[in-house]
Amino acid sequence: MCGFGEKDRRLIDPPPILRLNMYHEPGQPVTDYRAVDASCFVCLATVWSADGHEERGVVVNPSSIPIQPSFPSANVIALNDPSPTRNLIGSTVVSAQCLNDLNGQPGLFFVFSDLAIRTEGMFSLKFNFVPLGSGPADSWAPIDRNWQVCCLAHSSPFEVFSPRKFPGLTESTELSRCFADQGVKISIRRKGPAKQG
Prior knowledge:
- It is found in: Nucleus.
- Keywords: Nucleus, Transcription, Transcription regulation.
- Its main location: nucleus.
- The chain has one helix at 174-180; strands at residues 17-20, 23-25, 28-29, 41-49, 58-60, 84-86, 88-90, 93-95, 97-100, 106-111, 115-117, 121-131, 133-134, 141-142, 151-154, 158-160.
- It is mostly beta strands.
- Strands 4, 8, 12, 15 and 16 form a 5-stranded antiparallel beta sheet that branches.
- A hairpin with a 6-residue loop joins β13 (133-134) and β14 (141-142).
- The two termini are 16 Å apart.
């Protein structure tokens, strides 16, 4: 967990990566992804409960909750309501990028390399794909502002640890290293897990 400060951004690791498969028509996949304007496709990440049934996007900042005094006869009068804040922070919306996969084949990928969750617990992520253009694959044109979610994807459940319980970072995935070698900003570790003191 990254907590409620803004300086220590503990990122979700490994970073979520989604691949977009496109088809001219059923059974005819797009093969020349270099001809597609990847900037016309965006994906939005939101945080949900582990079973994916309840959104967990808003939490209360503990520092905004009045502290009750230790004297039994004393009362605290709060001048402001507790302050809600986003639970998932970082770059929650990313554009597609044309990258080569582990087999050297080009494809369109969404790389969420800057996501962090403020609180500990079990969560899942929901990804909403939104096309911002329409037309042939080689000439996507902007459409009106009534953009709609085209499809959804859910992550598997994962655990967010408090700093004391954190088991340590593991070696970066092959796909993360592959994309980092192509210039994508991903934190890379080439050694095994290391405990934090």
